[in-house]
Specification:
The complex is a heterodimer of chains A (1191) and B (180).
Chain A lengths: L4 E11 L5 H9 L3 E11 L5 E13 H11 L3 E2 L2 E2 L1 E4 L4 H33 L22 E3 L5 E3 L1 E4 L6 E4 L7 H14 L2 H5 L8 H8 L6 H21 L1 H14 L7 H10 L1 H5 L1 H14 L2 H32 L5 H8 L3 E3 L13 H12 L18 H6 L2 H21 L3 H21 L12 H21 L5 H10 L2 H6 L1 H4 L8 H6 L8 H11 L9 H6 L6 H13 L3 H23 L4 H18 L3 H5 L1 H4 L1 H28 L6 H21 L2 H8 L3 H18 L5 H21 L4 H40 L6 H22 L9 H24 L5 H9 L6 H14 L3 H65 L23 H21 L5 H16 L1 H7 L1 H27 L3 H26 L13 H34 L12 H9 L6 H33 L1
Antiparallel strand pairs in A: 1-3, 1-6, 2-3, 4-5, 7-8, 9-10
Helix pairs in contact in A: 7-8, 7-11, 7-12, 16-35, 17-18, 17-35, 18-34, 18-35, 19-34, 23-25, 23-33, 25-26, 25-33, 26-27, 26-30, 26-31, 26-33, 27-36, 30-31, 30-35, 30-36, 30-38, 31-33, 32-33, 33-34, 35-37, 36-37, 41-44, 42-43, 42-44, 42-46, 44-45, 44-46, 46-48
Chain B lengths: L1 E2 L2 H15 L3 H5 L6 E6 L2 E6 H7 L12 E6 L5 E3 L4 H4 L6 E4 L1 H8 L4 E2 L3 E5 L7 E6 L4 E7 L3 H6 L5 E8 L2 H4 L6
Parallel strand pairs in B: 6-9
Antiparallel strand pairs in B: 1-2, 2-3, 3-4, 4-5, 6-8, 7-11, 9-10, 10-11
The chains are: A mainly alpha (1191), B alpha+beta (180).
Keywords (chain B): Nucleus, Ribosome biogenesis, RNA-binding
GO molecular function (chain B): RNA binding
GO biological process, one term (chain B): ribosome assembly
Chain lengths: 1191, 180
């Protein structure tokens, strides 16, 4: 064993760097054959060898090797210590060996296996694997798991594990036909595999090819084609997967597939875009999968991609489901919103307008604000603006939707009417019965029919039943007589007729125009006023056929105002403008009436306002319908609002009077007086208004009648569109009107129809009242709204007037009717309350009328007795005022104004009472605004700062920077040369002076200076007071002098010695020379530069200190100096050199000793110290003051 | 109940100015009446003169609230806005943020707004600028502070906080007992 030689690998370290392979071979050859030498030279960066070592392959026996190591290890060779060790085998060698071994082993095994099996089988009687006679499936003896397969071949039973499965399948070859072939093939294959392949053989896996590649085994030439194919498919996949195209492609396919389903692709696309993030990951996964795909066939890859797409789709569907759910949740949100929601991020400008203005009253404020900010912002007026109904433009233009309201109401109201017409007659009869009693009562009160104001539709309706017969008779008797006569007759002769005749005429002034219609033929209840108008217009008294067009359109003819409007409409066909004007006139008349009712004063104003108001809508309206419709919102409302004020007061006195006359017990004296007064006033008004009618009026005892003609006249004005004066028109109108009524009566309408008519009229009246009521409510709301908006600055004035007017009307109504406190009328809240109250009362009134159509007057009286007219202080006041001024309207107006003024004064008083609080608030507000301003400025400053910072942050190219004197920024670049030079000059000079003067020891100089100083200090206080600058200057000038002085003081002690005197005399010439300029210094006052830095207090301090020193020195040295001078003069001829027993030598040392007692010195110092400090402080203060003043 | 001192007013205005800027002027100087700020129980109330007069009739310890509470002064004398001030901040707000419907709930539960929930934002919003938060239907939900400027908002990842929550209308339920 020892002698057997093995190839060993040795490590040799510690070689000299100059060693060569041959040397090593020679060295080691003594121990064995050296086959291979590897030398490694390690060098540092500069090429200096660090170490050298090598590996050698030596073919040597074990013993030789040991010897070699023991000998050569740690031996010295070429100055280096060798290190020899056994090394690991060379990599390549090992590899080769391994391969060889493997190949050998495999071959051996293979051979062994087959031979073994064959031998063993031979033992069992099987030759060459064949047993011909055996039945397939028989087991071979002595050989477990060996069976005879089909075709008589002996084969082993195999236990195979399927790829990727844990299950082991028993493969019985006897049951299959071609297994041998397979097996044979396998064996052949194995045998045929080259040895090189087998060395690295491992169980085949999916990544076989990779491993093959790793092994350096590249596939057979067939494979590249396959790979090419694969790569193409791969490429496709990548292309379709990795990029967005893939996504869209998937999407498109997906979308196409889903086309059948509902839902637009766009939405899905949006949803998908939203989920892009999810998809961004997909390419990665695909890439990962691509490795796998390599092994797969291209078809497979296709399927795979399909599957992926399917996955995508499922993802999409999920997302869509989610989004749909979301959509369901937020169904209210519009589609746009949905899109917005899907949009990633939106940035909007600062002027973005919110869709909903969420804050209550801030719409207006906002408007103002935005105007302030100069942003054009159109708020959506659609829903929110209540006051829009008030403005004329909107009425004319926009409120079509609002128009619908009244119309529908009308239609609703009309329906019951129509339905009721059949059931009416009974009621009529009943009414007639009740009316008869009324008639009787009226007959009693016929004498003083002042109050026949019963313009109440209901009452008049009742009467008509009775009067109709009379009218018929009348018509029969004098159908062709003049209507005026008719009227007069009816008025004069028939007490009943009096009540009757007014009734057809009256309806106009009273809010119910139904009475005329009652007298008119049955066919139209609603259109009667219109009819009248048309009749008059056409001059045909009994024209029934003109109207039909309008009847359908105008559902609420019962209203007087409506009727007026209708007439206007009809006329508007001809000439609208004139009609409008006339209409306005009519309105004015109506107002006058209302005034007469309630003795109002500001009628003219109102009328004007009304004119201005009404002209706009009437002019702007082109259609008749529109002409008719808008008013319900404004004009008609207004009218309607006014009409109740007219009618209701008129009712009340009437009721009161009727009360008085029917039931005298219940009537209150006050009420009576009131009513009478009112009536009288009315009469007066009427007289003022239409003088021509007065004659008729006189004949007609009825006050109501007087009113009626007026109205008739006004209507006529409207109808005829003539410019004739009012009086004439009134007359004519009366005539015509009466004629019309007469004719209509004479038309001989059947009584039943009349009854129907009456019923309908009543209902209409009731409805009308109800409508009025609702409109009043509307008005109230509107009023409230206007109140809210009242303080808006941008609102039109006329609207404000409107409101005031209404309020005034209300107030009037109040005064006359309800007697609420007048003081409260101005405060708007109270007005609202009043309105509400009023409304309620009105409602009650009309409710009562409606509900108790058959009620007697007594009921009414009772009702109205509960609300006496003039009650309380305000009522009394009113009465007093009224009585004082009688019937004179103008005075009344004045009084009215006075009253209002009183109220104003009251208000002002109230304001004064509140004023302190208001002032407080104003102060607070002011303060707040100030603070706010500061805060906002603060913000601004902040922003400025920020801006500045940003500015500074801006990059500046220093090299490109050029000094520009015009730029302010560049001041920083200017170096203040002047100052520094000045300063330095000064300092230099000072230093120079000091340097020069140090040696100045001459007594003369000292003396002169001393004198000067003395003078200075004698006038020191003065100088201080006079001028700081000057003093400072002088001090500055003095400063250089002082140092020589002190030196002199020192040397003066020495000066007793001759040598000292000699020495100083040496300098005498020079000092004398220098003395002159110094004197000049003292004399001339240098102009002080006006720079603050020169007034540096420290500087002054130092000077002052110096002064102190000077003083001290003066004090201390004062006497001695004079002495020294004397000595000086004496010993002027002292020798320069010391001589024996020189005095100077004796005195010199004394200089170094303290001459005076320390205590004494201290005492002196303390004495002066306080003074000095004071002085110093004074100067300091003055200096400071100076600086401040200069600043 | 007392008027604010100058210092308090300054604090209040500084805070408000973060949200509505110079529009504070419109709160102080209102054309539709006199309105003022009053301090009561460390809380600042924005109240009309009329209500103020009425409120003076109630003793201090019994007076719970009047007008609109804008917020309160903390113990460290900082001013903290309450959600009740939203009514006045929203109409005047200069910088607004809209949240997507899905995020509304999260915000109303008191969470910050992430970028994923950000539907819309006013341009030029700077960082730490006070913003009013709206739903996409333009209903104000609360207010907060922009954690990122508009430019940054475009860039940040979807889970980054964009608006810090300060107050939301959900507090009307959550802090029902403390809100006045």
């Amino acid at each position: 064993m020892e002698m057997t030689k093995h190839l060993k690998r040795l490590f040799v370290g510690g070689l000299h760097h100059t060693v060569s392979e041959n040397e090593i071979k020679e060295r080691f050859s003594t121990f064995g054959a050296v086959t291979d030498v590897d030398l490694v030279f390690r060098k540092d960066n500069e090429g200096n060898p660090i170490k050298t070592f090598g590996y050698i392959n030596i073919n040597a026996s074990e013993r030789d090797l040991k010897q070699c190591i023991s000998v050569l290890n740690k031996s010295k060779w070429k100055g280096e210590t060798l290190q020899v060790e056994l090394a690991k085998e060379c990599f390549l060698h090992k590899l080769a060996q391994e391969r060889q071994v493997v190949a050998e082993n495999q071959f051996k095994q293979q051979v062994n296996n087959t031979t073994k099996v064959v031998e063993s089988l031979k033992k069992a009687g099987v030759e060459n694997f064949n047993i011909r006679s055996a039945v397939p499936g028989t087991e071979i003896p002595d050989h477990k798991d060996w069976v005879v397969s089909k075709f008589g071949r002996v084969l082993p039973i195999l236990h195979l594990r399927k790829n990727g499965q844990k299950k082991i399948i028993k493969y019985d070859p006897s049951k299959y036909c071609h297994n041998i072939k397979k097996l044979d093939h396998v064996t052949n294959f194995e045998v045929k595999t080259p040895v090189t392949n087998l060395t690295w053989h491992l169980e085949e896996t999916d990544d076989e090819e990779i491993r093959k590649k790793k092994r350096g085994d590249f596939p057979a030439p067939t494979q590249p084609a396959k790979r090419k194919k694969l790569s193409v498919s791969k490429y496709n996949v990548v292309d379709s997967n990795g990029s967005d195209n893939n996504f869209t492609a998937n999407m498109s396919s997906y979308a196409v597939e889903d086309n059948g389903k509902s839902g637009s692709n766009k939405d899905r696309f949006i949803a998908a875009t939203e989920n892009k993030f999810a998809f961004s990951k997909l390419p990665c996964s695909k890439n990962r999968n691509l490795d796998r795909q390599e092994t797969n066939a291209s078809s497979k890859s296709n399927t795979w991609s399909k599957a992926q797409i399917a996955c995508h789709r499922s993802g999409f569907e999920e997302q869509e489901l989610i989004s749909e759910r979301e959509n369901n949740k937020t169904e209210e949100l519009s589609q746009a919103e949905h899109k917005l929601q899907d949009m990633p991020l939106e940035v909007v400008g600062e002027d973005y307008v919110l869709r909903h203005q969420t804050h209550w009253a801030l719409n207006d404020l906002r408007k103002g604000m935005l105007e302030d900010v100069n942003i054009n912002h159109i708020s959506n007026d659609s829903g929110s603006e209540y006051d829009s109904a008030d403005t004329d433009e909107i009425i004319s233009g926009k409120t079509i939707s609002h128009k619908r309201l009244p119309r529908t109401k009308f239609s609703e109201k009309r329906n019951p009417l129509i339905s009721n017409t059949e059931g009416d007659p009974k009621k009529k009869e009943y009414n007639s019965n009740s009316n008869s009693s009324n008639k009787d009562s009226e007959a009693e009160s016929s004498e003083s029919n002042l109050d026949s104001d019963y313009e109440e539709m209901m009452n008049s309706c009742f009467r008509i039943d009775l009067s109709l017969t009379d009218l018929e008779q009348l018509a029969n008797s004098s159908s062709k007589a003049k209507k005026e006569n008719n009227k007069l007759q009816s008025n004069l002769k028939l007490v009943k007729n009096i009540s009757l005749q007014p009734s057809p005429v009256n309806p106009l002034p009273s809010a119910s125009g139904t009475k005329i219609s009652q007298s008119m033929p049955a066919w139209k209840k609603n259109t009667i006023p219109k009819k009248i108008a048309s009749a008059i217009h056409d001059e045909d008294s009994s024209d029934c056929e003109i109207t039909p067009n309008k009847q359908l359109i105008n559902p609420s003819p019962s209203k007087k105002t409506m009727s007026l409007f209708k007439s206007k409409e009809e006329n508007s066909k001809g000439n609208k403008l004139i009609n409008d004007q006339l209409f306005l006139k009519v309105k004015r008349k109506m107002y006058k009436e209302s005034d007469s009712d309630s003795e109002t004063s500001a009628v003219d104003k109102k009328q004007k306002v009304n004119q201005s108001k009404n002209v706009v809508p009437s002019d702007s309206d082109s259609d008749e319908k529109s002409n008719f419709k808008p008013p319900p919102f404004k004009g008609t409302k207004f009218l309607q609002f006014n009409t109740p004020t007219m009618t209701i007061p008129s009712h009340k006195p009437n009721f009161g009077i009727s009360e008085n006359k029917t039931e005298k017990l219940k009537s209150e004296i006050q009420n009576l007086c009131n009513s009478e007064l009112l009536n009288g006033e009315r009469c007066g008004d009427c007289g003022d208004a239409n003088e021509a009618v007065n004659a008729v009026k006189q004949k007609m005892v009825h006050f109501k009648q007087t009113e009626c003609p007026k109205f008739e006249a006004s209507t006529l004005l409207v109808v005829e569109t003539s410019h004739v004066k009012e009086e004439r028109e009134c007359k004519d109108g009366i005539d015509k009107d009466v004629r019309n009524t007469a004719r209509s009566l004479a038309a001989g309408t059947p009584q039943n129809s009349e009854k129907h008519l009456l019923d309908n009229q009543k209902r209409l009246a009731a409805l009308h009242e109800r409508q009025k009521e609702t409109e009043m409510q509307k008005k109230l709301i509107q009023g409230a709204l206007t109140n809210l908006d009242n303080q808006k600055p941008d609102k039109g004035k006329h609207i404000v007037f409107d409101f005031e007017e209404e309020s005034e009307n209300n107030a009037l109504f109040k005064d006359v009717g309800e007697n609420l406190k007048e003081e409260d009328t101005k405060s708007q809240e109270k007005l609202h309350v009043e309105k509400a109250f009023e409304n309620r009362t009105i409602g009650k009134l009309f409710d009562s009328e409606e509900d108790n159509e058959d009620d007697s007057d007594e009921d009414y009286n009772g009702r109205f007795k509960l609300k006496p007219q003039f009650e309380g202080k305000a009522g009394h006041k009113l009465f007093d005022l009224q009585s004082r001024f009688g019937t004179d309207e103008r005075f009344r107006m004045d009084e009215r104004f006075l009253e209002s003024e009183d109220e104003n004064t009251e208000e002002s008083v109230m304001d004064k009472g509140q004023s302190p609080e208001d002032e407080e608030f104003a102060d607070e507000k002011k303060r707040a605004l100030n603070i706010l301003q500061s805060v906002i400025q603060f913000d601004d400053e902040k922003s400025d700062l920020r801006k500045e910072q940003t500015r500074f942050k801006k990059f500046k190219d220093v090299s490109a920077l050029r000094y520009d004197p015009t730029k302010e920024d560049h001041i920083g670049f200017e170096s203040k040369l002047d100052d520094s030079t000045k300063k330095s000059k000064k300092e230099k000079r000072k230093a120079k002076e000091e340097a020069e003067k140090l040696p100045e020891v001459s007594t003369e100089i000292y003396y002169d200076v001393n004198v000067d100083l003395k003078e200075m200090f004698d006038s020191g206080t003065k100088a201080n007071e006079v001028k700081w600058d000057m003093k400072d200057d002088s001090q500055v000038q003095d400063q250089p002098v002082e140092s020589p002085e002190t030196v002199d003081c020192l040397f003066n002690g020495n000066s007793k010695e001759d040598s000292a005197g000699f020495t100083f005399s040496f300098f005498d010439d020079a000092t004398s020379n220098t003395q002159k300029p110094e004197l000049g210094y003292q004399i001339e006052s240098r102009p002080m530069p006006a720079f603050p830095w020169q007034e540096d207090p420290r500087f002054q301090d130092s000077s002052s200190e110096d002064d102190n020193d000077e003083e001290k020195d003066l004090e201390s040295c004062g006497n001695s100096t004079e002495k020294t001078e004397v000595i000086f003069s004496k010993k002027n001829a002292n020798l320069f050199f010391f001589f024996k027993d020189d005095q100077r030598l004796k005195d010199g040392p004394k200089l170094f000793c303290r001459t005076t007692d320390l205590e004494e010195e201290k005492h002196n110092w303390e004495e002066k110290r306080t003074l000095l400090i004071e002085e110093y402080r004074k100067k300091h203060r003055e200096a400071k003051r100076k600086i401040k003043a200069k600043q | 109940m007392r008027p604010l001192t100058d210092e308090e007013t300054r604090l209040l205005f500084e805070k408000l100015s973060k949200y509505i800027g110079e529009n504070i002027k419109l709160l102080v100087d209102r054309p539709d009446g006199t309105y003022c700020f009053r301090l009561h129980n460390d809380r600042v109330y924005y109240v009309s003169e009329k209500i103020l007069k009425l409120a003076t009739n109630i003793s201090r310890d019994k007076l719970v609230s009047f007008g609109t509470c804008f917020g309160k002064f903390t113990k460290t004398l900082k001013f903290r806005l309450h959600i009740t001030a939203l009514d006045y901040l929203a109409p005047y707000a200069k910088y607004k943020v809209w949240v997507k419907p899905g995020t509304e709930q999260s915000f109303l539960y008191g969470n910050h707004i992430l970028k994923s929930g950000l539907g819309r934002i006013t341009e030029n919003t700077t960082q730490y600028q006070g913003v009013v938060v709206y739903s996409m239907a333009d209903i104000p939900l609360g207010f907060g502070v922009a954690a990122k400027s508009t430019q940054d908002c475009r860039r940040v990842d979807p889970m980054a906080i964009v608006v810090f929550h300060q107050a939301d209308v959900g507090e009307y339920l959550r802090n029902e007992d403390t809100l006045t």
